[in-house]
Amino acid sequence: MATNRTFTMLKPDAVEKGHIGAILEKINTAGFRIVAMKLTQMTTADAQAFYAIHKERPFFPDLVEYMTRGPIVAAILEKDNAVEDFRTLIGATNPADAAEGTIRKLYAASIGENAVHGSDSDENAAIEGAFHFAGRDMF
Ligand code: CMP
Prior knowledge:
Elements: E1 3-10, H1 12-16, H2 20-29, E2 33-40, H3 44-50, H4 60-68, E3 72-80, H5 82-90, H6 103-107, E4 116-118, H7 122-132
Antiparallel strand pairs: 1-3, 1-4, 2-3
This protein binds adenosine-3',5'-cyclic-monophosphate.
């Protein structure tokens, strides 16, 4: 397994409910190194661009409204097998299907408001990380 990187967002629902600390604790305990991190708020144009792959989906307007309604924590994380291991840590997209102990099982309310994002491939991790961070912000 190569050391590699993934990108995550702690979404507005997780921030609103005060779960930043608990989720970061799980991320640290699982062995991820924080490469970059910030509290930020996406604009409508940001969210439309970030989720462009979903623009034809019926949930797209709700997704953009949700992701722009308040601050998020954006971060790049590093670990062996980062993309796959992080998706295991966060659990299934729908928290109803998420395994016990996963971040979504613990902190997500619904498939739409699912607390946390994790990249689905090394290629998308690089694209999504670069969307939020300049090279000088990565350590
Ligand atoms: P994520 O997988 O991080 O990125 C796409 C997001 O779209 C997903 O999390 C959910 O927040 C949202 N999403 C995916 N599927 C649905 C759905 N069926 N209904 C509403 N929102 C969804």
